[in-house]
Amino acid sequence: MKATITLLPGDGIGPEVTAQAARVLEVIASTFRHRFNFVTAPIGGAAVDETGEALPAETLAACERSDAVFLGAVGGDRWSSLQPHQRPESALLRLRQHLDVFANVRPIRVLPELAHRSPIRLDPLDDVDIVFVRELTGGLYYGQRQRTPDAASDACEYTVHQIERVTRTAFALAEHRRGLVTSVDKANVLETSRLWRDTVTRIAREEYPGIEVEHLLVDAAAMHLITRPASFDVVLTENMFGDILTDQASVLAGSLGMIPSASLSDNGPGLFEPIHGSAPDLAGTGRANPIGAILSAAMLLRHGLGLDLEADAVERAVTETIRAGVMTPDLSPNGHARSTEAVTTAIHERLVRHEFAVP
Fold first, then answer.
1. Interval 138-150: pLDDT, tens
2. Which of 70, 112, 166, 311 is most open to solvent, judged by the fewest CB atoms within 10 Å of its CB?
């Protein structure tokens, strides 16, 4: 396969973890006889410094021409004095909307070797295997905003079309898992949530009668993620609720640095990124965890390029590396931690072993 992958390293530790993800993609290309053409473009604070804009037109054009887009991270205190529409984070919202990547898929899986790193003490925590599907281009983040000296408002808006398409994504994933979709809303208070629940119920009844559906209010969902996380399979929710719940659920896996994500559209390139932030305090220290980025590269292979075997190889190599105890300080704080590059090298070595090679 030939594919063009646009890399958006961004800010803080973004360039470091992006470089490690690219290393893994390069070894996959070599091992499985693909040709990946990498194009690097600025975004976020780095783009502000270089061009004066957080999302330059040239970056958007590069993304449009690519088969998949990989993002490191954006943001940092050094740009906090800018106006909201000029800040690095605004680039991410605009990029998502421009590419129409409406379904954000975030898997949360607890490896037995890392269960002790979670602050949640449940037995067995390693039964947790959740996929969150978060609607990504609607809701409060894109509604009309107003502010006066004495008041402010943010409009939360959803259309039936927006809810239908992300619902179908969640149900399609559930068909290949345990067959349970938990739809999270606030239907006892919000009109948008009542529309959400009605639409999800209709799609389930008309198109996916074999999938079990439960509806949970967001406050109950937050509680159950801590008290019974293993009961969840696919969790479907709107933009802001999904943002909060997935960060909450990330602690189950032991570290925010472990969690990948894929943002998917009906057509055009997907956007793949670890869910962690730019962590400027870790930049240049060699302590950033590259695994969230590397697993995002695996999602790029699977969801962006349709390369399931290659994605499986990356995920197995990551699991074997963790089982061997090769981890960054966030996962191995007791004097045995390895650097960002060393962890990637260990994954790289496992990828080139015979069992991961093309037969």
1. 999 999 999 999 9
2. 112
